[in-house]
Design brief:
Blueprint lengths: L5 H11 L6 E17 L2 E19 L2 E7 L4 H15 L11 E2 L17 H18 L3 E19 L3 E20 L2 E7 L2 E2 L11 H17 L1 E2 L3 E7 L6 H8 L4 H4 L21 E4 L20 E6 L2 E2 L6 H7 L7 E2 L8 E2 L3 E4 L6 H6 L3 E13 L5 E13 L2 E7 L2 E5 H7 E4 L4 E9 L2 E9 L2 E9 L2
Length: 461
């Protein structure tokens, strides 16, 4: 249950700042996580767990102390607040704290809460998806489906008087398929989700999710290995945006910029990308996977234009980053749970539609790679160096998409790829992921239209 006694919260905040902190914050969370797994046509597991606790943070300039507890009794909260105060220092101070409860407008309505639906309904959805995957081709030998559901409620208060409560529900289906022939196995996957309840499957039919995963597995089973070398690459929409997210997005978070560990430090107002590139982080998109009404410091999320026509316009800034950088907060403070101190994170981050027709992008490439579906990878925010797998790729010859190839990867640096994106199409779409950083794993959308990178190193054989 929430800490429904406002006076107790004011008391806890007062203790947290009692040794000289200039601001304190209390964050309460109640999150229910559910996962239903179907494998081989049978339910393999049903998991349901609840996370509940409180995080208390104190600020003194750009110094912070953070403590957390699962004991939300008055005694437990006082103990945690005293520990935070003692770690902050030996001074003595008092603040007159009066909380001002403020209603939060919910722009992410939920019609069918997955935790009120019966298990049979959820299992039937998974069965539709996995049956469709196996029926796609007799070489599909395995399909596994996961239905992932979250019901997340938070309450945030601080010594400036802020006192807000918010709730957010998310639903996602992830299907993987294995295709086999001649002793060789290849994988495919599809995993759409939204900040919605089970009505999300009005947007994404389970059968389509299963068939998409199976089709990718079959394509890779029939494909030859990708040749290596530097070449132009057309990267498709949706999860193709993971390259911007990882190679450039993290470098625009105050977590890196505010501590001088980003390739984008000191470049505000400078041209850092091709003029066709406009990149946005927008936490206000209704029911999007990475959207929230308020961030984890209680600030409303907003639409932040990060790069406009190639020029760096904004960073993503949390409270600590704001103090370090002297810039306003942008509604990007996020954390996995009460056990993590929040920091600046992306929400729904994408390259916006550009001026080029998609067919012209493919036609412009004499020889190169069409990356239809991207996978995971790694990046160094300081240097921007990245390496990403291509889950499904094809060779382009004479402006036409030809044979499928597998085993491709894209290797480069964020600053270079921003300059080398020289064509931007018009079919913007997003895809869902979980982003890990110092404040844990949080849901984020990545996205873009079809783009062309004029040259990039392709790893292969």
């Amino acid at each position: 249950m929430a800490i429904n006694n406002q006076k107790i919260i004011e008391e806890i905040l007062g203790i947290a700042v009692s040794t000289g902190a200039d601001l304190a914050e209390v964050y309460w969370e109640l999150t229910r996580n559910g996962t239903t797994t179907l494998m081989g046509g049978r339910i393999d597991a049903i998991a349901d767990n609840t996370v509940s606790g409180v995080g208390i943070r104190a600020f003194l300039g750009t110094r912070t102390v953070y403590g957390s507890t699962s004991d939300i009794s008055r005694e437990g909260l006082i103990k945690c607040a005293k520990a935070v105060a003692e770690a902050m220092g030996e001074g003595k101070a008092e603040q007159n704290i009066v909380l001002k409860p403020t209603a939060v407008a919910d722009i992410h309505p939920v019609k069918i809460n997955p935790f009120t639906a019966d298990n049979k309904a959820k299992c039937d959805l998974l069965r539709l998806a996995t049956d469709a995957a196996r029926a796609y081709d007799n070489r599909v030998v395995q399909s596994v489906g996961n239905l992932i559901t979250v019901d997340h409620t938070i309450q945030i208060a601080n010594t400036e008087g802020l006192f807000k409560t918010d709730r957010h529900v998310r639903t996602r289906m992830a299907v993987s398929a294995v295709a086999s022939s001649g002793g060789e196995n290849q994988n495919g996957s599809c995993s759409p989700g939204r900040g919605m309840g089970l009505e999300v499957f009005d947007l994404f039919a389970p059968e389509d999710i299963g068939r998409t995963a199976a089709a990718q597995a079959i394509t890779n089973l029939e494909a030859d290995y990708c040749p290596a070398g530097q070449m132009p690459v057309a990267i498709e929409n949706g999860f193709g945006g993971v390259i911007f997210h990882e190679a450039c997005g993290h470098s625009l978070e105050a977590t890196s910029v505010g501590t001088g560990r980003s390739q984008m430090c000191g470049k505000m107002g400078q041209k850092i990308a091709n003029e066709k590139v406009t990149a946005i982080d927008d936490g206000t998109i209704p029911n999007a996977w990475g959207s929230v009404n308020i961030d984890d410091e209680g600030n409303p999320t907003q639409r932040n234009v990060l790069i406009e026509n190639g020029v760096l316009k904004s960073y993503m800034v949390d409270r600590l980053g704001s103090r370090r950088m002297g810039m306003p907060m942008t509604g990007n403070s996020r954390r996995q749970s009460y056990a993590y101190e929040p920091t600046s994170r992306m929400t729904n981050t994408f390259i916006d539609n550009g001026p080029d027709k998609n067919e012209d992008i493919i036609a412009s490439i004499e020889y190169g790679l069409y990356a239809k579906s991207m996978g995971g990878g790694s990046v160094n925010p300081l240097t921007g160096a990245f390496n990403f797998a291509v889950n499904e790729g094809y060779i382009i010859r004479n402006g036409k998409i030809c044979e499928a190839v597998r085993g491709a990867s894209l290797i480069g640096t964020g600053s270079e790829i921003l300059q080398d994106i020289d064509m931007v199409g018009q079919n913007l779409d997003t895809a869902q992921g979980m982003c890990g950083s110092s404040s844990g794993s949080v849901p984020t959308d990545v996205g873009q239209p079809l783009i062309r990178v004029s040259k990039i190193t392709v790893g292969g054989r």
